[in-house]
Each structure stands twice: as C-alpha cells, then as structure tokens.
Specification:
An eight-stranded antiparallel beta sheet has the order 2-3-8-9-12-15-16-17, with helices on one face. Strands 1-10-11-18 form a four-stranded antiparallel beta sheet, with no helix packed on it. Strands 4-7-6 form a three-stranded antiparallel beta sheet, covered by helices on one side. The protein starts with 5 loop residues before the first strand and ends in a 16-residue tail after the last strand. It contains seven helices and 18 strands. The longest helix has 22 residues, at about 60-80. It has helices at about 60-80, 90-95, 105-120, 150-155, 185-200, 295-305, 310-315, and strands at about 5-10, 35-45, 50-55, 100, 140-145, 165, 170-175, 205-210, 215-220, 230-235, 240-245, 250-255, 260-265, 265-270, 285-290, 325-330, 335, 340-345. It has a domain at about 35-60 and about 205-350: ApbE-like domains (T-fold, Roll), CATH 3.10.520. It is α+β, with helices and mostly antiparallel strands. A hairpin with a 4-residue loop joins strand 6 and strand 7 (about 170-175).
C-alpha cells in the first residue's frame, strides 16, 4: 500500500520567443530559445494514480515523451499483472505444480531481482506472499479478534521464495506446488516508473518527475533550474505533510499503513503480511526509502515494514547509497545513518532520532 504523497512541482510560464527588429530595416536578431516549462499528464495505471511530468521548451517533444512513458507503463502492467488473464505472471500461477513456463527475458530478469531482494531481506520481501490464504479483511472496520493461530500457520504453508525454480537457459519459471502463486505488486510500480523514466529520457527529456501513487522518481531539474521538492505525508493526519526534501536523479518511495487496515481492540493491522508468521506487520505506520533506483526502493519499503523499525533500518544502513525514514506506531520519526529531512512546520529536525537497538 502506498502512502499519500504531495509532490510540489514549481511551474513556470512559457516564454514567448520575440523577434527583435532594429529600425530602418536592420537585420533580425536570433530567435530566443523557448523557455522550459513543466508538462504533466495523469492516468490510472496498475490500479493506482500515476502522474508524469516532463520539463521541456518544446511542446511537441514533451507531449510525445509523456505519451511514450504512459504507454511503457501500460505495457509492463499487461506483461506482469496479477489480475490480467493474459499476463505472464498469471500463466506462471495457473501452471503451478504442473510445468515450467517460458517467459520473456524481461520478466525472467525482474523475478531474478525480486529473489535477490528476498535473500537480502531474509525473506521479509517475498513475491510468493500471494500463495497465502486470504484470512484477513482489510475493511477499515473493528473486528472481534484475529484468526486463531492454527489458521494463521496454515495460511502461509505454501509461501517461500526459495521454492521458485528458475531455468536461466530456457528463462522459465516454475512454482513446484499447486496453489502457489507469485505477485509482483511489491515491485511492479517501481519497475514501471523506472522504465517510463528511461523511455522519456531517451525521447530527449532531460528533467522530469514520475509519481506512481507514492513511488516517485525525478531527474534533472525543474524549469527554474532548482531541484525537485518532494513531501512526505504525515500518517497521523492524512493528506498533510510531515517533512520534505529536495532531490534530483533520485527515487523517494513511501508505503503507509493508514489506507487499508482493520482493528482489534483499538489496535490497527495493515495489509503488509509477514510471510514468515502470517500475521500483519506491526510497529510502523510509514516507511520512506530514498535511493537512485526506484525499483529497488519500491521493494525495500515493504521489507522494512515487515522487519520493523530496528531491523528494517539496520538493513538500510548496510546498503550503499540507500537511506530511509520511518514513522513508528507511536508517532516517532526514525532515520537511517546520514539521512537528513526538512521538517514541515516543526520545531525539531526530523533527522534527530536514531533507532535504539533491541536489548
């Protein structure tokens, strides 16, 4: 699930190119280059709202690039969707326990990367989470109790990223047990944003921002030459800002627990399930990952949610070029080493608190 994000993108007016003519028929002066402005297009993709922004002084180029980025995201969605009956992921799931499925090299490589993140995170990120039985209803309502422990244990019996069998020669994928399923939802939006940005750059857009419902990647600069200012939502007050940072050529990806949840005796449980235990992850209300790779950031926010504040930030601190900030259930803001945030209307900097190790 993705937290509500606000991205503040400063817009500038289109500068009109004026041809200056000297009196008495003097030679015309060179035409001034069109001033850059930010062009934006939004669409509902991958079950979420995407916004594509391109900075350019060329109207035609900007709109072509925006359309190309949108089409690339649509292509990836059709290829890897958990819900589209024609997708290669659905075919893998349909033939679980029967036979391997040959997939496009692109899909194969993406699955390989997800399994590496599973290994890195000790299984906190696991695309086979879809194999779990659906025993929870995240309806924002109060429930009498959690399912009994035996039901919870049974719900995760088919989950296990180590079970996925890959054949690099045939680039095939095999799920060895009937009922096993994979779902790339934890990384697919990030991958879609990464590919859309690559397509827009190839089209000639040197500055832009793509926001896939909280999976933000920006490159270059705004029309006035400044960096991109990205705000992080406050989980205690949805649709408000807790802090912000200025970035360029960087991903800022947030996951929050305040959109899909249920409660038991005033304790809220959100939809990130711990694949080891079968219980909803607890301890965090919001996770934000900052790194150059939006695909990696998209997977890491889920892993940190499952690991919790101490183990999650310990994982981030081991990774070069990756930072994170988390907000705990108690409302405390914790950050990774070297992380600096600008608090929004706050007296103390958000980067002041480091997690305390478990005793």
């Amino acid at each position: 699930m993705r937290a509500y994000w606000l991205s503040k993108i400063k817009q500038t007016a289109v500068g009109a190119a004026l041809l200056a003519l000297a009196a008495g028929g003097a030679q015309a002066q060179p035409t001034a280059a069109p001033r850059a402005r930010a062009y934006t297009r939004s669409a509902h993709l991958m079950g979420s709202q995407f916004t594509f922004t391109a900075v350019s002084g060329d109207d035609s180029l900007a709109w072509r690039a925006l359309r190309a980025g949108l089409r690339e995201t649509q292509r990836i969605d059709r290829l890897c969707s958990y819900w589209d009956s024609t997708s290669q992921v659905v075919k893998i799931n349909r033939l679980a326990g029967i036979r391997p499925v040959v997939v496009d090299q692109e899909v194969y490589d993406l699955i390989v990367r997800t399994l590496k993140i599973s290994q890195l995170s000790g299984g906190a990120f696991d695309i086979t989470f879809a194999s779990g039985d659906k025993i929870y209803k995240f309806d924002k309502q109060a429930h009498a109790s959690l399912p009994d422990s035996a039901t919870v244990r049974r719900s995760v019996r088919r989950i296990g990223w180590q079970k996925v069998q890959l054949d690099p020669a045939a680039h095939s994928v095999f799920l060895p047990e009937k009922g096993m399923r994979i779902n790339l939802a934890g990384i697919l939006q990030g991958y879609g944003v990464r590919r859309a940005a690559a397509v827009m750059k190839q089209a000639g857009i040197s500055g832009g921002l793509i926001n896939g419902s909280g999976d933000v990647y920006c490159w270059g600069h705004q029309p006035d030459g400044s960096g991109w200012r990205v705000a992080i939502g406050d989980p205690a007050r949805p649709h408000t800002v807790s802090s912000w940072l200025t970035v360029s050529d960087m991903a800022v990806v947030t996951a929050g627990n305040y959109e899909q949840y249920f409660s038991v005796v005033a304790e809220s449980f959100e939809q990130n399930i711990n694949p080891h235990t079968g219980y909803p992850a607890t301890g965090l209300r919001s996770v934000t990952i900052i790194c150059p790779d939006v695909e990696l950031a998209d997977a890491l926010d889920d892993a940190v949610f499952v690991l919790g504040p101490v183990e999650g930030l310990a994982l981030i601190n081991r990774l070069k070029g990756v930072n994170a900030t988390v907000i705990t259930d108690a409302g405390e803001t914790l950050v990774s080493k070297g992380m600096q945030l600008n608090p929004y209307h706050s007296a103390a900097p958000a980067a002041a608190t480091q997690p305390k190790p478990k005793s």
